[in-house]
Amino acid sequence: MKKLGILLVVCVGIFFCLISYELHAKAATYQTVLGVDKEARGKYTTTKQNFTIEDYWKTKTVKAKLVYRVTQLSEQEVSTITFSVNDVPFYSFRPAKGETGVQEITVDVPADKLKKGSNVFAVEGFIYTTLPDNQCTIDDTPANWLHIDKASSILVDYDELPFKNTIADFNDRFTGIDTVKNEQSGVFMSDKTSDAEMTSSLQMVTAFAHENKLDDKQIALGAYGDTAKRNDKRYQLVVANFKNLPAALKNGIDTEKLNQQAVIKLQNVAGKRVLIVTSKDDALLKVAAKLISNQSLTSQLALDEKWVKADEKVETPKTKVDKEIKLTTEGDKVKGIGHVEQDYFIKVPSNRSISDGTKVNLKYRYSSNLDFEHSLVTVLINGKPIGSQKLTAKKANDDSFTINVPKDMNIVGNFNVTVAFDLILTDNYCGFMNDSEIPWGFVTNESTFDLHTEEQKNFLFNNYPYPMIQDEAFNEAVVVLPDNPDASILTSLENVFNLFGQFVDGNYGSLEAVSSSHFKAANESQNIIAFGGLNDNTVIKQANDKLYFKYNQAGTYFLSNEKMKIDPTYGKRIGSVQLIPSIFNKEKAILAVTGPTSQTTALGSTLLGSSEMLSKTYGDGAIIDADDTIHAYRFKKVASVDNETSFATKLADNKGTLAFAAVTVMILILLATATVLLLRKYRKK
């Protein structure tokens, strides 16, 4: 009896330890590093760095570390560096005069100035120098500089709040920056990998990848049985037809309701948060996956179980590409002496170019202590000016400027809009200035970019991911896979669909996945994404003669072509991505992510696995080897239609030639007429 009592006490103790672990916050830190060196030139400069505080963090401290070098000519008595967060200054210091080496300073950021979500840390430098004869320098000189090292960082020390045991909280944490950075989340399908499970998994990976804020990390995709990949994930999303669902995950699921509905259910399995998406009906499974891919709906699910019916309204609205875009939601202030800038990123599908009617509608105001003869505002696109307007004392509190974007700038895909103020003071100045005296400009939240585009329909990686994705939605896309995809093929999918997530917004559009043996006639009218090699993917086998990098008959290596001589031993070790017109429908395309083995297929997929690699992949066919050596080419002729242009059309396109031809014809007619008349005359004689 005594032993039983001791055992009971131990069990209760363990239970309360587990409860305590669950209820108490988990301590952690997250560091945001500047990542690139920044050069701040001029007397007054501002350098900004964004950092995030997640909703499920309880922030304890935030430390800002500045690693910098400053001109050795700085005047210590007046030069200052000021830190601010969310436009609120909180710390200033004077850089030591004559110091030429790297310096470092770490300060606490006031917690009451922080907010959930995105925060902005700014370094404002007032770097004043004197001439050798101690005269005042009025204008900016090359001597006015502040170098901010890439090692500068923001360190957030926080407690992770207790898990709320809701689908919405799971959704937040699944793509949280700490979760993704530590590779703690993943989507897993059953080991049997049915077409419906694959379709659902790819749909959800794309949606979660869209929410991922980190460029260098991905949302994992794999099979549930791949324990090496799955076991270390704190947040797991498991999608499976109920018959394929692992037995350990079936507990507590109402099997009767599964005949008519799908369920999204949250479970705690061995300390891991597991969100299960399952049904006995494949069509319902896809509906549930679409719901998870609708971030607006998922964020509302403050419950641990959601049943989904076939008629559930889960689709997001179609994205409108041509629209009026707000440049800023709250307004942006810039300040400084001379040239100061504010940048805005405009997201446009990669196959769309700016067309007529696109314009910038700028609403702004500025300080009144300016030399209005020389102060102005300029709008730039990708660093190229498109128009300027002088600032005036009369309109300082309410000014506006509308400028059309010239079509001849040939802007395709994403671009930057820069609003640049040249703020020139009326009087010469020397030494330190009060903050209130420093000139400023403010871009209001009424400023808009009126976007109009036209579509580029060439099948090129320059326009990727078109045509698989069009206007931020899957465009009648079908993924064709080997019948038994291994871990390397799933890694290929992980790479490609994580990058797709950067281009897809919402769940609108058509996406389907089928195994090679299930590829049917109906799929031939779709845009095809084929993974694998000649021997395990029917599409690649049928399209081999049309591939730019073809396989040998056995499918064991790539052959040489008109662009590149390939040794067979090298052809065995490379992966490839190729974008060709579909062999089934010339209006559609085939994207082949391919290699002689599943491992080389995964190697090829890295070309389409990140924005950095995509920038190195151009034309319509590319290969990569294990040393990351990339060979990319354009095989399709630039203007094949022109080769068939008739002689008459060429004449019509050249007005000078056409005029010369007309005169020649007239002369020939006159000569012929004269000859006929002369012949008649001499016949009569």
UniProtKB/TrEMBL annotation:
The keyword Transmembrane helix applies. GO terms for biological process: UDP-alpha-D-glucose metabolic process. InterPro entries: Cell_synthase_bac. Gene3D superfamilies: Galactose-binding domain-like (2.60.120.260). It is a single-pass membrane protein. The chain crosses the membrane at residues 658-679. It is found in: Cell membrane. Keywords: Cell membrane, Membrane, Transmembrane, Transmembrane helix. Its main location: membrane. One of its GO terms (cellular component) is plasma membrane. It comes from the Bacteria. The keyword Cell membrane applies. It holds the Pfam family BcsB. PANTHER family: CYCLIC DI-GMP-BINDING PROTEIN. This is Cellulose synthase catalytic subunit. It comes from Listeria fleischmannii FSL S10-1203. The lineage of its organism: Bacteria, Bacillati, Bacillota, Bacilli, Bacillales.
